[in-house]
Amino acid sequence: MRKTFKLDELECANCGAKMEAAIKKIDGVVDAKVTFMTQKLVVEADDARFDEIIDEAQAICRKIEPDCEIVR
Amino acid sequence: MNKKLRRWRKRIVIALVLFALIFALTELLPLSNWLGGERNAVYVEFALYLIPYAIAGYDVLLKAARNIKNGQLFDENFLMAVATIGAFSLVFFPDSGPHMAEGAAVMLFYQVGELFQQYAVGKSRKSIAAMMDIAPDFANVRNTNGDLEQIDPDSVAVGSEIVVKPGERVPIDGVVVEGSSQLDTAALTGESVPRAIEAGSEVVSGCVNLTGLLVIKTTKPFGESTVSRILELVENAAEKKAHTENFITRFARYYTPAVCGVALVLALLPPLLGFGALSDWVFRGLTFLVVSCPCALVISVPLSFFGGIGGASKLGILIKGSNYLESLASVDTVVFDKTGTLTSGTFGVVAVHPAEGVKSDRLLELAAHAEAYSDHPIAMSVKQAYGARIDETRVSNASEVSGRGVQAKIDGASVSVGNDKLMASLDIDAHNCELVGTMLHVAENGKYLGHIVIADMVKDDAAKTIADLHATGVTKTVMLTGDAEEVARSVASKLGLDEFHAKLLPQDKVAEVERLLDEESKKGRLAFVGDGINDAPVLTRADIGIAMGAMGSDAAIEAADIVLMDDKPSNIAKAIRLSRKTMGIVWQNIVFALGVKLAMLVLAAVGIANMWMAVFADVGVAILAILNAMRCMNVKKFQ
Question: Rounded to whole angstroms, how far apart are CA atoms B421 and B219?
Answer without folding.
Answer: 47
